[in-house]
Amino acid sequence: MENNKKAPVGMFRSLHMKLVLILILLIVSVMVVTGTFLINSVGNYYIKDFQDQMTRVFTFDVRESMGEAAHELNAVEQLDEMINVRAGSLGIDSHRNYYILDSNGNYLSGSREKGSAEITITPNLLSAMAGQIGLKNAVIDHYIDAAYPVEGEEERFIVYIKDDKQEIQELSWRFFSIVMEAMLFGLLVVVLLSFLLSKAITTPIENITKQAQLVAKGDYSHRLKIQSGDEIGNLTETFNYMAEMLQNTIGEVQDERDKLNTLFLHMSDGVAAFSMDGKVIHMNPATERLLDIHFDESMNFKDVFTDLEFPESSAQKRSVSCEIMRKDKILHVLLASFGVRESERGVIAVIHDITEQKKLDDARREFVANVSHELRTPLTNIKSYTETLMDAAGELPPDTEKRFLGVITGEADRMTRIVKDLLTLSKLDYGRMDLKFTKFSIQKMLESVYAAMELDAQKNGHNLAMYIPKPLPEITGDKERLEQVVVNIISNSIKYTPSGGRIFLFADQMDSNTIRIRVVDNGIGIPPDDIPRLFERFYRVDKARSREKGGTGLGLAIAKEMVEAHKGKIFLESEADKGTEVTILLPIEQEDKKNE
To answer: Phi/psi at 563 (nearest 5 deg)?
Structure first.
């Protein structure tokens, strides 16, 4: 029973039956519209013909003659005789009658006897009672009439013509019968043609459907025959191409999946995937090794990471980074969400062993701190020895003594700078650098730096210029540290720009919370390969040249640390033998200071 109920529904949902029904509805609609138009046209024509007849008969002269007859004593008989004479022109018959009425619409005479005459007050008759000719008719009325007022000496008469539209109704019924017969014949033809047409369309579609079912099951080997050059043929050709491309794509995806599986199994970093309810989906051997666990399908997030919370904001595509301890290992864990649809979302964990990296970082920091402290004692001795030699000078030639002493003093000063730089970096690394954030005028600070560095630039034969297009607002930061950064960068430009060069200091406000400082020179520039490493500690482009110029390789590293401590950015652009441009972006207000 259930299958029997579903069959008719499925039949009417098929494209075949839809096409048949559409064509049937189309022919029915056309015939209905055509029949309605024809019947309405016949009605309008009949009314117009009636009105033309009345107008041709009741001319102005005829109406004048009827008016004169109305003045006679036997006015009714004369009017009746005048209408009888024109009965043929008026089309008077069993369906169309004339009446002579008084001014109130009462029967006086006519083509029908008084007892059989039913006079209904119509709009045209009302117009005649008011002294106007009544000749307006509508298709929807069941009658057609015309009323002409005739003025007598003592009273008014009305000549009234009325047609019961029996002839037009018979003619309309004949038209209706013809339309119905034509519609039935058309329906028969349409049903036959629609079956043939729908089969021509649906058969290729059914073949494509069967082939699509095979493709859905993973069978891509079959191809459809192209039997026509129309849209159905193009669809068949496109489907064959799609099946071929799908087969190739799935093969490529499978190859990539195999590669990823191999990488997933043999990579040194641990990778684990979890569903949104925390259940483990995948886990590679490196995860088991790093976390010292064994994979079990019943495991969840808490079984893998006992000291971490499952991210609740995975839908926002945010990642969480943290470090955990496992026995003697330090592990860096990155938790990130994946998936777009709700049913496919989850969290993936990437685990990296940073134990050795931590040890190296700690050793490096400790080395820098130790070297900085160890250098202080020899610096004191060098300075004392230099002063003693200067005081006891005389045994050596004066020029020699001064040259030696100048070298010792220069080295002492250079080592002093190294110590200061190392101590600064050490404090930054350990977060011990006490930055004194205050509100100060960045413009005055830059003007002070410019005034201080202008003499040094002139000594080296350079032209140092400063340009600030608009007054700069006060900013929040450590004035001394930022001043040190700008001085360091201008000093580098002075050192590595040949005599006669130009150095340009520029500052402006980029947006509501950003100050931009640029130092541009036309010096010797930097090779492209060295630019990415310029902010590394102790890195020098040309070590011999840097030592000759007194460079330590720490200036830009300190500048970068200082700027980033102010939540700013620093970057460098350079071209060999053409010059260098260093840009510093500083926030006007510190976010944490705003919150306070």
So the answer is: -65, -45
- Selection from 290, 282, 288 nearest residue 354 by Cα: 290
| Model confidence pLDDT, tens digit, residues 343-370 | 677 888 888 888 878 876 775 775 565 5
- Give how far Cα 177 sits from Cα of 27, 44, 171, Å: 16, 19, 10
* Burial class of residue 559 in the structure, from the number of CB atoms within 10 Å of its CB (0-12 exposed, 13-18 middle, 19+ buried): buried
pLDDT above 60 for 593: no
Kindly list the distances between the CA atom of residue 59 and the CA atoms of 69, 160, 193, in Å, as whole numbers in the listed order: 15, 15, 58
Q: Where are the domains of the chain?
A: 58-164, 220-266, 270-353, 358-429, 438-595
Bridge partners of residue 569, in order along the sequence: 585
pLDDT tens track for 208-232? 777 777 777 777 677 777 766 667 7
E-state strands within 130-189: 144-151, 156-163
Least confident of 180-184, 305-309, 364-368, 496-500: 364-368
Model confidence, pTM = 0.39
Distance separating alpha carbons of residues 335 and 481, to the nearest angstrom: 36
Q: Which residues of 122-148 are buried (b: 16+ CB within 10 A; e: fewer)?
A: bebbebbbeeebbbebeeeeeebbbbb
Please give the pLDDT value at position 520. Answer: 94
User: Class assignment of domain 58-164?
Assistant: alpha beta
Query: 245: which 2 tokens?
Result: 């491309």
DSSP 311: P
Nearest to 579 by CA among 469, 467, 453, 462: 462
Q: How many CB atoms lie within 10 A of CB 96?
A: 21
CA distance 307 to 327: 13
What architecture (CATH level 2) is domain 270-353? 2-Layer Sandwich (3.30)
Distance CA 542, CA 547 (A): 9
Nearest to 337 by CA among 288, 274, 402: 274
Q: Which fold has domain 358-429?
A: Helix Hairpins (1.10.287)
Q: Which residues of 207-236 are buried (b: 16+ CB within 10 A; e: fewer)?
A: bbeebeeebeeeebeeebeeeeeeebeeeb
3-state secondary structure 21-53: HHHHHHHHHHHHHHHHHHHHHHHHHHHHHHHHH
CATH architecture classification, 438-595? 2-Layer Sandwich (3.30)
Q: Do domains 58-164 and 270-353 have the same CATH topology?
A: yes
Residue 356 in 3-state DSSP?
Answer: helix
Residue 538: closest CA among 555, 550, 563: 555
Q: Are 382 and 414 in contact (CB under 8 A)?
A: no
pLDDT tens readout for residues 75-134: 888 888 888 888 888 888 878 888 888 888 888 888 887 766 677 888 888 888 888 888
Mean pLDDT of 506-530: 91
Instruction: Count how many residues are written for the chain.
Output: 596
3-state secondary structure of 573: strand
